[in-house]
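Section 5.1 Outputs to date
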Amino acid sequence: MLRELEAGGELAAGEVLDEAADSAVLTGLLARQEARTAPDPSTAAELCQTAVPLIALAVHPGRHRP
């Protein structure tokens, strides 16, 4: 999909990857916010574990570039 968007001239590869990183961070932060209001510590921990890979993906996007 990245190559198709880039080839079509709609977006540069860097723009697509920046948008993907932004989406990953936002999703991770939303999971963390939900963890703050979780009814018990176990649920909060589970939500935080869900957020970690998303935030890590955004911090190290170069590892996932084609």
